Amino acid sequence: MHQVEDNPSSYVRVPVRVLGCLRGGEITVFLFPGHGLVLTQPIQTHLVPESLRMPNSEFDVLFKHPGAEIVRVLRHDESCPEIESYRIDAQKT
Question: Taking a C-beta distance cutoff of 8 angstroms, is the pair 68, 23 a contact?
Answer without folding.
Answer: no
